Description:
Protein name: HET-domain-containing protein
Shape: globular
Mean pLDDT: 91
InterPro entries: HET
Organism: Coniophora puteana (strain RWD-64-598) (Brown rot fungus)
Distance between the termini: 39 Å
Low-confidence stretches: none
Number of strands: 4
Pfam family, one: HET
Order of helices and strands: EHHEHEHEHHHHHH
Amino acid sequence: YATLSHRWGQKEATYAEYKQGSRCATEPGYVKLRNFLDEASARGMQFAWADTCCIDKSSSAELDEAIRSMFRWYRNSALCIVHLAQTRSVKDISHDAWFTRGWTLQELLAPPKIKFVDQSWKPLVKGENDKDILQSVSKATGIGTETLSKSFEPRTEKFSEKMSWASRRSTTRAEDAAYSLMGMLNVSFQTAYGEGGPRAFRRLLDAVVRKAEDPSVM
Length: 218
């Protein structure tokens, strides 16, 4: 299956709306989904998964499970299609807001194979896996090309380095700054929207310390 990595915009198609067919197919969220499905199909994928409509966010239990499983969803996919809505060429890549969002950090690191497409859904480079633009991605993220080129292992080691990557990014919900890091650190704790960013991050640190793979985080 293919996964979609993107910046959320206005009028995204939710689980309930997509299931009921209650939204206009010309709205931006539906157009994005259709383009994603077309791209996934063209690349031989049987199934496709998008966080906008494949999670029932009206269920707090399902949302909690989905957030804690998000890294694995991307890690187990055969292909992650990254839609850079503000990019027209590789030269623009470092200015795309996709590289400033909290959740897209793990969506960059987790998948075994990534394909970047521009705002018009055209591939930025030829080929099946975008290793050719690692220098541009490294510049935009602060993550070394050696790390980007290897299979990323979710662990608590090199905690400070990973926090430096995350510090360049932001989230709409304060708690997501912590929740979005669970998968890449290989820790898990229950989400509690409303607890605030500082408390969520403190619980993240508690989980990391308990894991204790890296003495430097103690």
